[in-house]
Write a structure and sequence with these properties.
Number of strands: 22
Radius of gyration: 20 Å
Distance between the termini: 9 Å
Shape: globular
Structural class: alpha+beta
Strand content: 25-35%
Largest sheet: 6 strands, antiparallel
Number of helices: 6
Length: about 375
């Protein structure tokens, strides 16, 4: 289990654009834009919080900056995604990976088929981030039990990575379908040191953003952040732009600090996730069970953004079509920020990555104690 030491540096997250369609901007024929899939995790519930199942692609309307978008792929729960590209007959994409692809994250940058359309398959990529700071001394064993039960209860199509954090980030188990490997990593954690939640959450999101399909980060935190230098607003924006939903489970201790409570609520809502505040170990297990149910009922929609001159924040609105659908509630991320991924030698030509799906947000964050991203 590798330890990541804090250093002073400028952390720039940028990823080469994945396979997409090059088009020329109308305003400037020398500007080339790489358009990639925007992936959305969408929960549909009634007023009582019950999940609405059995919806079809035609039941959803997606609008980006006032521009109506066309659904490219669609899936419900852990079912394989259906391709709807160019008006072709709906077809199921490739099914869940076989045993040869169980360990999916040996090298997050090796350019494997995870970045192709057919990699949008059944199941979710779930990254669990566990607080092992000195806040956790009293309820450490109970938290381990709750996480272990959550890991065992996830569907067989889901892949899981287990990370822990205090002042530093520990990548204890890379993304894998092997539950035993993850459970061993959970049991090997020990408590101690201060909490750098936002630093380590940003690095976890960086890892998760390199995968296509449904990507979620589940954070178990026992208290506020007391040693990060990255502001939570930057973390939330990165998660939105990378298409990663954040779920946060915190103990009642976090409620004692209103700022942390507000941050947890805002961050999860902006990414389409949820925040839970558990009073005891029973509440912790129930929160994990609620997240498991949420993952099993999410709709996965994706689209190729139409021509949009806005290079800043792009607002996404998802609605249900039909008068009888207005009574239902939708939860998903509220938007993303497209960022240039690279520039060519010709000063007049630039490639712009607008995926909001598998690309990094190009931004520099100066930090005195931000953990190094390499293992």
């Amino acid at each position: 289990m590798a330890r990541i030491s804090p250093v002073f540096f400028c952390l720039c997250f940028c990823l080469f654009a994945s396979d997409g369609t090059g088009v020329k901007a109308q305003e400037n024929p020398d500007l080339h834009v790489v358009v990639n899939l925007v992936q959305l995790n969408v929960a549909v519930t009634d007023k009582k919080g019950n999940y609405i199942t059995g919806l079809n692609p035609k039941d959803f309307a997606i609008v980006e900056d006032g521009i109506t978008e066309k659904v490219a792929t669609f899936a419900e729960g852990n079912e394989p995604a259906i391709s709807l590209i160019e008006g072709a007959e709906p077809r199921k994409l490739a099914g869940p990976p076989d045993d040869s692809t169980k360990d999916a994250a040996k090298d997050p940058s090796n350019g494997d088929p995870r970045h192709t359309l057919d990699s949008l398959v059944a199941g979710a990529n779930v990254f669990v981030l566990f607080d092992t700071s000195d806040y956790m001394y009293r309820g450490f064993v109970f938290a381990q039990d709750a996480i272990a039960e959550f890991v065992r209860s996830l569907g067989t199509a889901d892949k899981i990575a287990f990370y822990s954090y205090n002042r530093d980030l520990y990548r204890a188990a890379a993304l894998t379908a092997d539950r035993e490997q993850v459970l061993r990593a959970v049991r090997s954690t020990v408590a101690g040191d201060e909490a750098a939640l936002y630093n380590t959450l940003l690095l976890t999101l960086k890892d998760a953003s390199q995968f296509t399909g449904r990507k979620v980060v589940v954070v178990f935190s026992n208290g506020p952040d007391n040693s990060s230098v990255v502001p939570p607003e930057d973390v939330a924006e990165f998660a939105q732009s990378a298409g990663v939903s954040i779920y946060m489970i915190s103990t009642q201790d976090a409620k004692l600090e209103p700022v942390s409570t507000a941050v947890f609520d805002r961050m999860t809502a902006a990414t389409g996730g949820k925040a839970y505040f558990a009073k005891n170990w029973r509440d912790e297990k129930q929160a994990f069970a609620s997240i498991r149910d949420d993952l099993a009922h999410l709709y996965s929609l994706s689209y190729y953004p139409r021509m949009n001159p806005n290079s800043g924040w792009r607002a996404i609105t998802v609605k249900l079509v039909g008068e009888h659908m207005k009574k239902y509630k939708i939860r998903t991320r509220s938007g993303y920020r497209p960022q240039p991924s690279r520039f060519s030698g010709d000063a007049k030509t630039a490639n712009l990555d607008t995926s909001g799906c598998s690309s990094y947000s190009l931004q520099c964050i100066k930090a005195e104690s931000l953990p190094h991203p390499s293992r």
